[in-house]
Amino acid sequence: MADELTQYLEGCQSHDMAIRTASEQKLKEATNPQQLPGFMYALTEKLRDENQKITVRQQAGLYLKNILYAKDDAVLEQNRARWREHVGSDVKVQIRANILTVLRSPATVARHTAGQTIAEMGAIDLPTQQWPELLSTLLQNITAETPEEVKVSTLECLGYMCERLDYKGLKKEVVNEILTAIVDGIRSNRANAIRFAAAVALRNSLFFCRGNMEEPQERNMIMQVICEATQSEDANVRSAAYECIVQMGEHYYGFLKDYMEVLANLSFQTMKSDQEKVAIQAIEFWNTLADEEYEILLELEEGGTPEHPCQKYVEGGLPLLCPILLEALTKQDEDADPDDDIWNISMAAATCLQLAANTTENAVVPHVMPFVLSNIKNENWRFREASTMAFTSILDGPKTEVIGTYVNQSIPVLIGALRDPHEIVKDTTAWALGRICELHAGCVPQEMFKELVTGLSSVLLPEKPRVSAQACFAIHNLAMQFESDDSNTNLLSAYMGNLLHLLMQVTEREDWDEANLRPSAYQAISMLVQHAAADCKPILLQLLPAILERLQKSFGMQVLTNDDKDAKEGLQSLLCGLIQVLLQQMSAEDISEQLADSIMHALVEVFKTKNATAHEEAFMAAGALSDKLEGKFERYMPTFHPIVMQGLRNFEAYQVATVAVGVVGDLTRALEAKIYSFCNEIVTALLESLQNANLNRSVKPHVLSCFGDIALAIGGNYEPYLQVTLMMLLQASQSRAPDDDEDMIDYVNTLREGILEAYTGIIQGLNDGNKVNLIQPYSEAIMGFLENLSHDQNIDDAVLSGAIGVLGDLTKCLGNQVPNVRKPFVMQLLKKGHETGDQATIDLVNWTNGNIQSLSF
C-alpha cells in the first residue's frame, strides 16, 4: 500500500487528466469507514518521511486535512463525524503523534502543511478534551530551545486553529494555554518572524478571549504586548499588531477607555509616518471605531439599549484625525488600474472619512470643508481630486441644512471639473455629482439642471470608461429622484430622448467591458425608463423594439472562451431586465399581438441556454408581460408552462426557483381561473421544493405564499390541494427563532409572512368558491398560530398586519364557527396593531374588530 500510496499521491499532480482522475478515485475509495483509519495513518507516515519527495509529503498532508475539512457546513460536520466515529482512539494517538513531529521537520512546506492539518484536527478534538497533549506540545515548541522556524510553524498552526475553533465549546483553561503560547511568541525579545506569526495567531484568537479580557490584569498584559508590537522594527509585525488592535475595537469596544489615549497617539503617528500597509491598518482601527459607534447610536435612536455607551471616540478625535486623513487623500496612486482589486492609503482615508461622517454627522463639517474650499481649484491635480473626494466622502453624514449650502455652491464648480485635464479628477467629480444626486438632489439649483444633464452627457462617449461609468451612475441617481413624480411631464422629459440615445451608444462602446461600463449604462437606462413622465411614452415605445433586436442578435454571438460566455450571458440578463422595466411602463393597448409574440419568442430563446442570471430576468419579464396581457397570455402557456416547471425545480440555482415561484403568482393574477389546468403540476413542484432539504431556505416563504395566490385564482377548485398545503403551513408555523439570533428572527418573520399570505389567499379563495366551510376543521390550529404570534416579542409589523388580516378573514367568512375568538390574545393582537401608528394597519384593525363585534355569542 505504501508504494501504491506514493504512486497515487504523485498521480494527483500529473498533467495527464486520465492519470490524475484515476489517482484521485483510488484515494477517495480509501476514505470508506473500513479503510479510513489505516489510510489516515499511512498519510501521516508519508508526511513525516524526510526521505520522501516534498511534493508527495505536501500532497499527503493536504489530503489528510481535506478528509477533515469542507467549506460547506453540512459536509464539514459529516467529515468531523467520520473522524470521531470511525477512527479508533489507538490509531488517533499514532496519527496525532506523527503529524506533531512534522512541525519540527527541516522542510518548510512539510511544516506548513502539518500546521494546517493539526489545526483542523485540533478544532475537532480540543473542545471535547480529546487531545490533551496538543497545547502543551505546541507550547513546548515555542518556549523551549527549538529552531526559529519551528517556533514560527507552531505559531502559524495555532493561528490556523484559532480560525477553525468553535469558541463556544472551549474551556477557559484551553484558552489560557493558547494565549500563553501566543503571548510568549509575540514578546519583544523574539525574532521578527516569530513575532509576526504570533501576532497573526493573536488576531485570530481575540474573539474568543472575552473571559481573559474581562480580567484587568490579563487585559493589560494583552494590550501591552500588542502596543509593543506596533513599535517593532519589522513592518509585517507592526501591521499584524494593528490588525489585533482592529479586532480589539470590534470585539472589546467597551474595554478601550483605559487605553484609548495610547491607541490614538500610536495610530495617529503610524498614519502619518509609517509604511503604507501599516498606516492602512491604523486607519482601519478608526474605521472600526466609527462602525461600532454608528451601531450604538443607531440602536439608541431606535429605542434600544446598547451593550456599551457610546464614548464618541471618533468625534473627539476629529481635530487630529481629519488633517491626517486629508493629507492621505493627496497620496493617490496615479497608475492604479480601477478594474484591479487594489487598496491604497488614499482609498482607506476616504473610507474612514465617510464612516466618520456617518457617525459624527454635522461635527465633521468644520474639520473638512476648509480643506475642500481651499483646494477645489488647486493647481496641483492631487489636491483638486483630494478635495472633491473629501467633500463627497462626508455627504452622507451631516444634515441637509448643514451641508446643503455647500452642495448648492459646488454644482457649477463640479460641472466645470468634468472638463479637468486629469482623468482621476474627472472620475471623482462624476462620482461626486452622482452622490449629490443620490443624497441631496433637492440642493441642486433648478437653474443648473440643464447644465448638469449636459455636463454628464458630454462625458458619456469621449471619456475613459471609469469616467463614463460614473456619469452613468450620476444619471441613474438623478432619474431616481423623480420616483414619486406622477405628472405628465418633468424636468427630465426634455432630455429623455438624447440621454437614452447616448446611453444606448455607451453600451456598444468597444471598451464596454472596462470599469463595469455596460451594466452601468443599462442601469441608467432602466432608471430613466422607470421614472419617465407620461409625455415620454412615445420614446419608450420606440426603445422596446430596439432592445428586442439587440436580444435577438445576442443569440448569434460567438462563444469561444469563458469571457465570451460571460459577456453573452451578462448582456442577455441586462436586456431581459430592461424589457421587464419597459413593459411595466406600458398599457395593454401599447402591446400588439405581434410585439407580444416577439417578446415571448425572444424570452423562450433565452431559456434554452443554461444561464441562471438571465433566466431570473427573463422570468420577471414574462411575468410583466402576463400582467399586461392578463387572460390573453393563455396562448403562450403551452410553451411557457414547461419552462416554469423547470424553474420551480431548479433547486441548485435557488434565485431562479424564487423568481419562478413569483412568476406563478403573476400567472395566477393574469389568468385567474384559467390557471387551473396547470395547477396539478405546479402544486406538486411547490410541495417538492418544501420537502427538499437542500433547497435554500429563502425560497420557502415565497412557496408558502404562492399557495394563497393559487387559491385566490381558482377558488373552490383549490379543494384537492387544501389538506396537503394546510399541513405544510401548520408544520411551517412551528418554526421558532432564538432571541439572540437576528438572522433567524428575520427569516422566521419572513416565513410567517408567507404563511399568513397563504392563509389569506386560501380563505378568500374558498369563500369566493362557496367552499369556505372546508377551512373550519383547521381554524383552531390557525387561531393557535395567531395566539403564538400575539405572545412573540420578535414579530415585525408585516407579520402583525398579516395576522390581523387572517383573523379578520376568518371572522368574516366563518362567523361564529371561529374558535377562541373571545380569548385575550385576540384583543392583544388588535391593540398591538393599533399601536404601530401605521394607517393601513389601523384600518385593518378596525375592520377586523368590526367583524368580531358583529358575531353573536
TrEMBL record:
Residues 23-105 form the Importin N-terminal domain. InterPro entries: ARM-like, ARM-type_fold, HEAT, IMB1_TNPO1-like_TPR, Importin-beta_N, Importin_beta. Keywords: Acetylation, Cytoplasm, Protein transport, Repeat, Transport. GO terms for biological process: protein import into nucleus. One of its GO terms (cellular component) is cytoplasm. Its main location: cytoplasm. Pfam families: HEAT (PF02985), HEAT_EZ (PF13513), IBN_N (PF03810), TPR_IMB1 (PF25574). One of its GO terms (molecular function) is small GTPase binding. It is found in: Cytoplasm. PANTHER family: IMPORTIN BETA. Belongs to the importin beta family. Importin beta-1 subfamily. This is Importin N-terminal domain-containing protein.
